């Protein structure tokens, strides 16, 4: 039920980013980028404490009237209502090699449970590990694997 | 599920890879030797990166450098060689020595007298280059830049020296 999934490398550039619907991609690039700051904050806070690998970040709700829409309305231009009338939740996950996964989820239909998010991240991690073990893949390149694409597709929501 | 032949196959493959790295086409002499070393070490590095993703089954438990090295000694060695390292020493200043008294790649050579004289010079650097790269790759993926060298004193024991690069 995810709306956007991104894999970010250790150096904070995207290795893989995909969102539905495709037109909103730029907005999601921005969303994921801002989430990175929060991820970094959490990781440095973890520091010496004995914490689990997966980090659940819930609570950064993305308000309905985002900045772009309100700017347009101020200019007096009629604007299309956002396709996501409900809140978007963002979740983050960090691996041992400091690769981050960010998932943006539309919480309209089902309130996704903690466990489901965790299992989605686990699947993501396993697929990413498979990509990493592919000898034809150079670490740091963008991910073009079909298997990875299929796995991500299976997690994305069908919108209209 | 480990099959019976896995370890033997891996050792045979490794031997052939080493032979190919230094073999025909590269030329003998220093140039060829260095090229072979680079290729072998690079191969090990890439494998190490993949292993670093797959192996840690669980928490982000590496709070210190020492924990990461211990992970190498236990989990990595266990997964790749089927045993753990026998000794780990450190000077607490970023240098670690991993000692293995019965290193799987060297056991076959230890049987007779044939290789005993040649062993230390050739083996340490050239034969174990893949393993050095493996260690370096795993460490690099886990966030530690290092340089790894190997030395063989008496077959089949060997020592790997890991020097952490301070940023």
UniProtKB/TrEMBL annotation, chain A:
This is Trafficking protein particle complex subunit 2-like protein. PANTHER family: TRAFFICKING PROTEIN PARTICLE COMPLEX SUBUNIT 2. InterPro entries: Longin-like_dom_sf, Sedlin, TRAPPC2L. Keywords: Cytoplasm, Endoplasmic reticulum, ER-Golgi transport, Golgi apparatus, Transport. CDD domains: TRAPPC2L. It comes from Sarcophilus harrisii. The keyword Cytoplasm applies. It is found in: Cytoplasm, Perinuclear region; Endoplasmic reticulum; Golgi apparatus. Belongs to the TRAPP small subunits family. Sedlin subfamily. Gene3D superfamilies: 3.30.450.70. One of its GO terms (cellular component) is cytosol. GO terms for biological process: endoplasmic reticulum to Golgi vesicle-mediated transport.
């Amino acid at each position: 039920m995810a709306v956007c999934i991104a894999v970010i490398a250790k150096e904070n550039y995207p290795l893989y980013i995909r969102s539905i619907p495709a037109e909103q991609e730029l907005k999601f690039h921005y969303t994921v980028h801002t989430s990175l700051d929060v991820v970094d904050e959490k990781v440095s806070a973890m520091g010496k404490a004995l914490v689990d690998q997966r980090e659940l970040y819930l609570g950064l709700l993305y308000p309905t009237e985002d900045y772009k829409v309100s700017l347009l309305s101020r200019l007096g231009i009629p604007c299309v209502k956002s396709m996501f009338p409900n809140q978007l939740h963002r979740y983050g996950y960090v691996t041992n090699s400091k690769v981050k996964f960010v998932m943006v989820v539309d919480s309209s239909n089902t309130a996704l449970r903690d466990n489901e998010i965790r299992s989605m991240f686990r699947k993501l991690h396993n697929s990413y590990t498979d990509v990493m073990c592919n000898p034809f893949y150079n670490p740091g390149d963008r991910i073009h694997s079909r298997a990875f694409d299929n796995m991500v597709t299976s997690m994305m929501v069908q919108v209209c | 599920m480990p099959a019976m032949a896995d370890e033997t196959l891996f050792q045979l493959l490794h031997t052939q890879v080493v032979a190919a790295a230094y073999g025909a086409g590269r030329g003998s002499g220093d140039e060829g030797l260095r090229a072979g070393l680079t290729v072998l070490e690079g191969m090990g590095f890439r494998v190490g990166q993949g292993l670093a993703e797959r192996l840690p089954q669980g928490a982000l438990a590496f709070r210190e450098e020492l924990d990461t090295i211990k992970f190498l000694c236990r989990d990595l060695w266990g997964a790749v060689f089927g045993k753990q390292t026998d000794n780990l020493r450190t000077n607490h200043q970023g240098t670690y020595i991993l000692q293995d008294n019965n290193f799987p790649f060297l056991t076959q050579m230890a049987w007779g007298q044939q290789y005993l004289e040649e062993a230390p010079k050739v083996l340490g650097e050239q034969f174990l280059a893949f393993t050095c790269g493996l260690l370096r790759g795993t460490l690099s993926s886990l966030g530690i830049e290092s340089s790894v060298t190997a030395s063989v004193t008496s077959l089949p024991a060997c020592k790997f020296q890991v020097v952490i690069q301070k940023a």
